[in-house]
Amino acid sequence: MKLYESLTPQSSITSSNIFSFVKVGESFFNIMRSLGIRQIFGNPGTTELTFLKQIPKDFTYYLALHDGISVGMAEGFYLATRTPQVVNLHSSPGLTNSISFIYEAYVSRIPLIIIVGQQYSNKLVDEPILYGDFIKISSGVVKSAYEIRNEEEAIKLFIRAYKESITPPYGPVLLSLPLDVAEKEVKDYLQFPRHFVGSLCDDMSLEFILNEINKAKSMAIVAGYEIGIFNAYEELMKFAEKLNVPVYNEPYMSISPYDSSHPLFMGSLSRYRASDILKELEKYDLILVIGGWINYVVFPDVDLSKLNVIEITFDYKEATRRPWSTVVCNPKDAIIKLSEKINRRFEFKREERLDSVENTFLNDIFKEIKPYAENYVIFSEAPTHRDLLIKNIRLKPSSLYITRSGLLGWGLSAGVGYSLSGRKVLAIIGDGSFNYSPQALWSSVRYNTVMKVLVINNRGYKSLARYNLNADWLLPLTTPWKVALGYGFEAKELEDPKRDISWLLGDNKRKLLEIILD
């Protein structure tokens, strides 16, 4: 079972290297084409123009009005296509504008190649305007960063960046491309090296898991984002049904991994306190975490190593951080092989969890949305109301995406990027989130995507109000629907829930509806 390999056309693979001379930028685009990548995301500047003027006619440059939004759009497009994406950023200002969005890609394990326009290669020692040490600037938010020093290195480093981005754990890799190097000529090899990543789970690790399952008196599964990344939804459901064990979402769910209407589904674990997770899971002898992070909470107030946990992940960095037993391999392969070998069925009877309803008005709004939600992929960035949304909307596999890093502004940007694939997107976001990236609406209009936006106006940072802090700087008042009009969206404020939700979701027009909460 392989994850990625080069999509080089078979007709171009020969026993010898055939090449012609082309500019570095042209060679980059030729490599991208051979990999099935026909688009690039960005917001252009002077140091990128020598590269960008070489864009072939069969490519699309997706323009964002803010550098960070271009990264968010690329991440959304990846989530829709599962193909690594390329972003072009404008030197130091563009890179620093984008750091938080790159961090989201790093945490969410999204493979990106980030090309940053650099000043002339022979002038870097003078540190002219727009120059920057991109290696230092990006440290901690990319897998690796490389300064291209000459045309001979350029192609080698582009190939290296691609390979590294798709070698687990996936993530962004940065290339600093001097504007003069982009125009220099190189040998353009037509044969692109393939890259295979082994992912099979070995028998010894599977036997260990099977033995632990057979010893346990009770068991639960915690499903994480890797179920979505590796498209293991059906396999997970059949595995849970065969064992007859409950399934939880990981605490800080970023990709919905399970059908919320399934009788074994127990909802999401608390994203606030580790003690809440301990209270919920300590009743089980064994916790099998598949492709997720159970410790990923806002307040790690207790040590979860008290639980008997086995974690299966393809992220070796995540595995090495944990004190419990870990197995590093493709979670889909693990589920398939465990299902074939397992001969155990637990006694489990679902008990309904009693959840309090925080906002009855918003609860009714989400119920109005539910019949329409089947037709949309939802990007949610309303932290205060996240749990209420999850309780009220039927979540099918990969039907809901949420920022994994906690970044504000990602939901709208990534939602627009996802909609570029042709899918219908509903973004449900708070007013605080909207104010981080309203420019993303322009890109939706420019590229004619089906984008719906529901803004829940909390009249301030309501997620912080719960900490009993009374301060006027927690109450910025804005009117998002008026802002949306300026970017070309149909927009209005909600008056009648049933009628206005139908107005928002009942057609294929770009619309924004604002709900003001008291």
UniProtKB/TrEMBL annotation:
Family that this chain belongs to: Belongs to the TPP enzyme family.
InterPro entries: DHS-like_NAD/FAD-binding_dom, THDP-binding, Thiamin_PyroP_enz_cen_dom, Thiamin_PyroP_enz_TPP-bd_dom, TPP_enz, TPP_enzyme_TPP-bd
Taxon lineage: Archaea, Thermoproteota, Thermoprotei, Sulfolobales, Sulfolobaceae
Pfam families reported for this sequence: TPP_enzyme_C, TPP_enzyme_M, TPP_enzyme_N
Domain Thiamine pyrophosphate enzyme TPP-binding: from-to ranges: 401-463
Keyword terms of this UniProt record: Thiamine pyrophosphate
Record GO cellular component, one term: acetolactate synthase complex
Protein name (Swiss-Prot/TrEMBL): 2-oxoacid oxidoreductase (ferredoxin)
One BP term from GO: L-valine biosynthetic process
Source organism per UniProt: Saccharolobus caldissimus
Residue ranges of domain Thiamine pyrophosphate enzyme central in the record: 208-335
All copies of domain Thiamine pyrophosphate enzyme N-terminal TPP-binding, residue ranges: 23-121
Function: Catalyzes the coenzyme A-dependent oxidative decarboxylation of different 2-oxoacids such as 2-oxoglutarate, pyruvate and 2-oxobutyrate to form their CoA derivatives.
Catalytic reactions on record: a 2-oxocarboxylate + 2 oxidized [2Fe-2S]-[ferredoxin] + CoA = an acyl-CoA + 2 reduced [2Fe-2S]-[ferredoxin] + CO2 + H(+)
GO molecular function, one term: 2-oxobutyrate synthase activity
Keyword Mitochondrion: no
Enzyme Commission number(s) of this protein: 1.2.7.11
Subunit structure: Heterodimer composed of an alpha and a beta subunit.
